[in-house]
Amino acid sequence: MSGALAAALLLPAAAGAAAAKPHQPKGPRSSTVKIRVGHLHGGRAPILSTVSVTGTVRPFAPGQRVEVTFFLNGRRLESKTVRVRRASGGGSFRARIRIEKAGKYAAGAHLEATRSVRGDISARKSWRVSFPSLRHGQCDRVAKGFKRAMRRMGYASGGTSCFNGRTGREVLAYRKVNGMARNEHAGKGLVKRVFAGRGGYRVRHPDAGEHAEVSLSKQVLVLTKGDRPFAIYPVSTGKPSTPTITGEYSFYRREAGYNAEGMYYSFYWHGGYAVHGYASVPDYAASHGCIRTFIADQPRIYYQLEYGEPIFVF
Predict the structure, then answer these.
(1) How much is the average pLDDT of 98-106?
(2) What is the pLDDT of residue 28?
(3) CA–CA distance, 223 with 203 (Å, rounded to integer)
(4) Higher-pLDDT residue of 156, 10
(5) Average pLDDT of every residue of the chain
């Protein structure tokens, strides 16, 4: 057999072998997503600031989306799905979160897969929160947020954005409830506790409906609906030689304005014992038996209380 004939006979076999191995299309490409957290100072974000999470994606493909999830103390806080935009060397994205509570925050990103690019999950990045001290006369978003956090625990510190006299008195009440030094100073530690929702008053008689409680040891007057306080005031009760009586009583007589004894907007609950405003309200028991409140607070207390409402003194 000639060499030409042999070559001709082998051609179909070779062609069949080529047909048995068609071209295989490539699958989706692998991808990488990375994030970084901005606006931090020493690994911390100021309370009520906005933290920005920026990320990169490689390679970029049209239609890519990333789900950015934020965590607080290990629990999912919220998720945001954002679009990936073309950038130098790949794609980029951004998501933001407002820091409103104390705790350890973290963020992670999940790149959704497309037909041409596989998905990916980033490493989590974490940070903590920094808190300032607050001072009298301070008017800003932190002072406003602090008052809102106090209000959620029942310390009714007013609705403005300023740390004013009423706020100072509520800080004094907070300190009394929590066994702290009795003053109006809102240091960094106290501010952090308040934004974390710690330091509320535990109601002694939660089944009594709407009522008032006076703790002689803590020197506070608490107005509450069941187990939810809605106002907590610093007071001064009877000194050792003229103690405030203890027990359960009911409010039965009102007296608006000042009386001859200098008592202001008095609401009586047993004989001559009353809740009333007075010029002197030290941070310890100093009255003749009544429950003294600050002059600036008493008109509000006067109208928050009702005839027949129970008061528990203990």
Answers:
(1) 96
(2) 78
(3) 10
(4) 156
(5) 93
